[in-house]
Amino acid sequence: MSTVGASAQVRKRKPSAEKVEKNEATRLALIEAAAKIVGRYGYAGCSIARVTAKAKVAHGTFYLHFKSQQELFDLLLPTLGARMLDKISDAVRNATSLLEVERRGLEANFAYLVAHPYMYRLMMEAELFAPTAFRAHIGMLVERYVRSLRRSLKDQDPPLYSDIELEQVASMLMGARSYLLMRFCAVDGKIKPLSPDILDTYLRFVATGLKAGPLAPLLAAQELTSVPEPTPKPAPRRRAKATVEA
């Protein structure tokens, strides 16, 4: 075998399982360090120098795992958001009703945020600093929430909500959770546990809504008032005046 051939074979050799595992551990350490930096200083203060110092690796090690600071930002929320959703999924497994799913899910969601308070700022600032990651995270949240709702409501015959309506319901419930977090639990960079009375209010709302009255009269009135606007008539064409030559 020639020297050139031997060199090519060495270059093509796959890294050992131990090496792959070590590389992945370093990559995750950088991601977790960056998330904690964002939690304290925001995305704007999350420099590569701070991240590598927090992860206790050399500055150049960063570029073995990420092409740029933005590539790291774009991985933070999808990576750590998926980890949070896995915890919530574990908590709701074997729940026997929609309300039980919601109770367990909300408790697990807020418990995770209490244990990992940096997630709050990571999510709140992502739309500005990592819009691609933000959209991916929201899409993942909605997709998994819709699957959960569909499983919980599978025995309804006929189904109360279509697939697109389930997506709308999931978005409304996600909004409720976000504002409960902002209004009652996020204080000075820390997350307080969700109080039992707020959990009870949320569950009563999911169970019964606002009981604002029957919907049929409102829908009927809406149909009566939704009269299509008349199509405007075209303006009459003006006849051109004849030109008289002198």
Automatic annotation (TrEMBL):
<dbReference type="InterPro" id="IPR050624">
    <property type="entry name" value="HTH-type_Tx_Regulator"/>
</dbReference>
<dbReference type="InterPro" id="IPR009057">
    <property type="entry name" value="Homeodomain-like_sf"/>
</dbReference>
<feature type="compositionally biased region" description="Basic residues">
    <location>
        <begin position="235"/>
        <end position="246"/>
    </location>
</feature>
<dbReference type="GO" id="GO:0003677">
    <property type="term" value="F:DNA binding"/>
</dbReference>
<dbReference type="Pfam" id="PF00440">
    <property type="entry name" value="TetR_N"/>
</dbReference>
<feature type="region of interest" description="Disordered">
    <location>
        <begin position="226"/>
        <end position="246"/>
    </location>
</feature>
<dbReference type="InterPro" id="IPR001647">
    <property type="entry name" value="HTH_TetR"/>
</dbReference>
<dbReference type="InterPro" id="IPR023772">
    <property type="entry name" value="DNA-bd_HTH_TetR-type_CS"/>
</dbReference>
<protein>
    <recommendedName>
        <fullName>HTH tetR-type domain-containing protein</fullName>
    </recommendedName>
</protein>
<feature type="DNA-binding region" description="H-T-H motif">
    <location>
        <begin position="47"/>
        <end position="66"/>
    </location>
</feature>
<keyword id="KW-0238">DNA-binding</keyword>
<feature type="domain" description="HTH tetR-type">
    <location>
        <begin position="24"/>
        <end position="84"/>
    </location>
</feature>
